[in-house]
């Protein structure tokens, strides 16, 4: 087992050799994930296992754990989102190979070698993020909602008052 994540991996060669890698990756290095985060501070723990299954399929499986700071779309405050991703990817070179991949694997189309580890991690993180992040406990958002006061309906001028005056003139 290698206790360091390199920047790039030759996935097929590592799968042939049957390697396991562990390490940390800074959130700031995940360029495609950064626009969705409230803060680029933090580190993710990553474990990658590359190998060849009994049926000859080369695979990449692993876990990503950590915490991300997202913006709650209900109260617009920062919220911590715990991340725990498990994935099992089958390495393929073409669409044709994808159709032959066993169902237990999601396809990973390897178009160029070496592959950036940050891109692999970014893809898996993006797939697990919620479409609309909100606090799981509504009470965390209610403090902000309690401060909001709706405008008084009685004080507003009727937008059709001008039309009513025109109607009276005729």
Please tally the helical runs, counting DSSP H or I stretches of 4 or more residues: 5
Series of H and E elements? EHEEEEHEEHHH
Strand fraction band?
Answer: 25-35%
Query: Using only CA atoms, what is the Rg?
Result: 25 Å
Distance between the amino and carboxyl termini: 90 Å
Task: Compile the SSE list and pairings.
Elements: E1 8-9, H1 11-17, E2 20-26, E3 43-52, E4 58-71, E5 78-92, H2 95-99, E6 106-109, E7 115-116, H3 117-128, H4 139-147, H5 161-169
Parallel strand pairs: 5-6
Antiparallel strand pairs: 1-7, 2-3, 3-4, 4-5
Question: What this model shows, in words?
Answer:
The chain is an alpha+beta fold and 170 residues long. It has one domain (8-135). Helices cover 25% and strands 32% of the residues. The chain has a five-stranded mixed beta sheet. Strands 1-7 form a two-stranded antiparallel sheet. Helix 2 links the parallel strand 5 and strand 6 (106-109). The longest helix has 12 residues, at 117-128. The termini are far apart.
Short description:
By secondary structure, the chain is α+β, with helices and mostly antiparallel strands. It contains five helices and seven strands, in the order βαββββαββααα. 25% of the residues lie in helices and 32% in strands.
Summary keywords:
7 strands; 5 helices; alpha+beta; five-stranded mixed beta sheet; 32% strand; 170 residues
């Amino acid at each position: 087992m290698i206790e360091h994540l390199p920047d790039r991996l030759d996935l097929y060669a590592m799968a042939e050799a049957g390697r396991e890698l562990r390490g940390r990756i800074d959130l700031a290095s995940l360029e495609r994930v950064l626009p969705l985060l409230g803060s680029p501070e933090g580190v993710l723990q990553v474990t990658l296992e590359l190998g060849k299954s009994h049926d000859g399929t080369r695979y990449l499986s692993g876990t990503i754990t950590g915490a991300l700071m997202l913006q709650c779309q209900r109260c617009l405050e920062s919220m911590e989102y715990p991340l725990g991703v498990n994935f099992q990817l089958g390495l393929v070179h073409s669409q044709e190979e994808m159709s032959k991949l066993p169902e237990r694997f999601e396809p990973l189309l390897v178009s160029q070698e070496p592959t950036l580890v940050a891109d692999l991690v970014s893809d898996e993180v993006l797939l697990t993020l919620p479409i609309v992040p909100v606090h799981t406990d509504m009470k965390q958002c209610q403090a902000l909602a309690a401060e909001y006061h709706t405008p008084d309906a009685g004080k507003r001028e009727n937008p059709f008052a001008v039309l009513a005056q025109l109607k009276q003139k005729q």
